[in-house]
Amino acid sequence: MKSKLLQLFIIFFVAAPAISFGQSWVQIATLPAPAFNINSISIVDGNTIWVCGDGAGVRRSTNGGFNWTNVSSGLAGNLYGISALDINTCWVGTVAGSIYKTTNGGTNWVLQFSLAGSFSNGIKMFDANNGVYQGDPTGNGQPYQFRTTTNGGTNWVLAPGAPLATNEFGVINAWDWVNTSTYWIGSANTVSNATTAKIYYTTTGFNGTWNNSVVAGTGGAAGLYYQAIAFVNATSGMAGSNGSNLRKTTNGGANWSVVTNPSGVITFAAINMHGMKDGSDVIRAVINEGVGYRMFRTSNLGTSWTEETVPVTTGIQHMQFLSPTLGFAGCGGGVILRYGPPVGIDPGNTTTPESFNLGQNYPNPFNPSTSFKYSIPTSGMVTLKIYNNLGSEVMTLVDRNMSAGNYIETVDMSAFSSGIYFYTLTAGSFVETKKMILVK
Q1: d(Cα 97, Cα 138) in Å, to the nearest integer?
Q2: What does the alpha-carbon distance between residue 211 and residue 241 come to, in Å, rounded to a whole number?
């Protein structure tokens, strides 16, 4: 069986930094028991997030990662690669090379594809019909499982040009894309002390022509794995290996050159990378030095690096960003990290309130996002929930102990139909409900 280069450690926590209104990484949740090591994450919007991991674990949050629901009914084995479209529709891959889909929020999962001897490394659905999947070859001389669907996964068709493997397999989450034609996928050379490994790339889609670059590096007993890939546009990107190697390309992956490591970083495994496609050229890299995980950021393909403080020292496996100011990461032990401004704090009103208050949402009517301001004069348990016009709860925005202060929450209701909704703030004996209108 393919071995994972995911090292499991006890998670240690450091003191949270003082509150500022800049962006930072904070731990916002730990998955409820039974927690598991998170292998992949899928962010739909600022509210809806899905994660998968060991022990058939799938969890979903509908309030920005603060609370999580077990939605893994009927699944088995470790899970890798997840892609969700909304609160109901999601695909997940397995250690056994299978793909499952749910259309009812995880109440039921339907097997769509399975290949014995393979291993799922990633799934990306671009819409309800079109998506791509990458899994391991079943052995030497066999094709990588680069597959596409145009009917929501009813059929997963092997790419006609899928490359054949030679002493290699794919790596979990080691891929990136800038559109539905241009992809890069890392691989692992399993020859002991290998000095090269391939990075595959295409500019003609999964069903088009696949090329590869043979990238130099320093392999160990398990071989050389290029297991972290990130691009900022169609030409510029980076890759990291398990052998303390960082590389960059400026011609779409045809050639790769050496990148200087961050200051003081010598021996490490690159675990995951993420590249922003917004013109900022920002790439983040998670590395494991054996005694702890660290996060670095560059905007010039590694010419210079800035370390970002993270509140955990181990297990950061997969990160995704919605915008330059909002991202999430899944970690070992079920830990969820969030990158962004202080959660919920209203930067326009930092005084301590004298009484409870729930403001009218703005804008109202809205489509699809709106914000709520509320004030809490004393610390305690707070919930903020949304209900439909039948009185059924449809979303929980807040459900946690909170300090006194003024807060603002934003919700994206693109997955809901037009109509009248109600939102209710509950804090101790204080309860207030207001109406809002979603118009599409």
Answers
A1: 9
A2: 20
**Whole-number Å distance between alpha carbons of 291 and 423:** 46
- pLDDT tens sequence for the chain (440 residues): 454 443 322 222 222 233 333 578 989 889 988 889 999 999 998 889 999 999 999 999 988 898 899 999 999 999 999 999 999 999 999 999 999 999 999 999 999 999 999 999 999 999 999 999 999 999 999 999 999 999 999 999 999 999 999 999 999 999 999 999 999 999 999 999 999 999 999 999 999 999 999 999 999 999 999 999 999 999 999 999 999 999 999 999 999 999 999 999 999 999 999 999 999 999 999 999 998 999 999 999 999 999 999 998 778 999 999 989 889 999 999 999 999 876 666 666 667 899 999 999 999 999 988 889 999 999 999 999 999 999 999 888 888 888 888 898 888 888 889 999 999 999 999 999 999 999 99
CA 217 and chain centroid, separation? 27
Pairing between β-strand 131-135 and β-strand 145-149 as defined by DSSP bridges: antiparallel
Within the chain, all domains assigned CATH 2.60.40.1930 are found at 357-438
Fold of 24-340: Methylamine Dehydrogenase; Chain H (2.130.10)
Best CATH choice for the domain 357-438 from the list 3.40.960.10, 1.10.630.10, 3.40.50.300, 2.60.40.1930: 2.60.40.1930
CA–CA dist 403, 311 (Å, integer): 20
Is the entire prediction scored with pTM above 0.85?
no
- Hey, what amino acid is at 415? A
Sign of CA dihedral 322, 323, 328, 329: positive
